[in-house]
Amino acid sequence: MTGEHGNIVLLDPSGNVTWSSNHTQVLRPNVLLLDIGNLVIKEGTENSQKNFWQSFDYPTHILLPDMKLGWKLSTGLNRYLTSWKSSEDPSTGDFSIKLDHHGFPEIFLWDNKHVKNSPGMG
């Protein structure tokens, strides 16, 4: 379903919003699932070059080819991996893999808010 401003909105059986692409600019959305697994929202036709939103900017527990990790400094978007709570519960778990872009970029394994390990820590 599309909501206000052309956002993609998922509703529960009661009609409550459970997820939204949360884009504030008005657009004529064209939603595409690409062969590589990326769900993208473009304005107008599928030949449009501009993606307003794409699922590859919000990875969860799997890194697919063509996905990126780390900071997009121009927008402040931080793309990182997170664990599931369990194999039956896909909600966010305790562990994440994040890139620290301060100084020399390094990737760290986090356990909640604590660095658990990094490749240089042995």
Describe what this molecule looks like in 3D:
By secondary structure, the protein is mainly beta. The protein is globular, with a radius of gyration of 17 Å. The model has no long low-confidence stretch (mean pLDDT about 80). The chain has two domains: about 60 residues, no CATH class; about 60 residues, no CATH class. The chain has a four-stranded antiparallel sheet with strand order 8-9-10-11, with no helix packed on it. The chain contains no helices and eleven strands. Strand 4 and strand 5 form a beta hairpin. The N and C termini lie far apart (about 50 Å).
In spatial order, strands of the major sheet run 8-9-10-11
Q: How many separate helices?
A: 0
Strand content: 35-45%
- Using only CA atoms, what is the Rg? 17 Å
| Poorly predicted parts | none
Q: How many independent structural domains?
A: 2
Give the overall silhouette.
globular
Largest beta-sheet characterization = 4 strands, antiparallel
Residues in helices, as a percent range? under 10%
CA-to-CA gap between the ends? 48 Å
SSE string, helices as H and strands as E: EEEEEEEEEEE
- Count of DSSP strands: 11
Structural class determined from secondary elements = mainly beta
- Overall mean pLDDT: 81
Map the helices and strands.
Elements: E1 9-11, E2 17-20, E3 29-33, E4 39-43, E5 51-54, E6 70-72, E7 77-79, E8 81-84, E9 92-100, E10 106-111, E11 114-117
Antiparallel strand pairs: 1-2, 3-4, 4-5, 6-7, 8-9, 9-10, 10-11
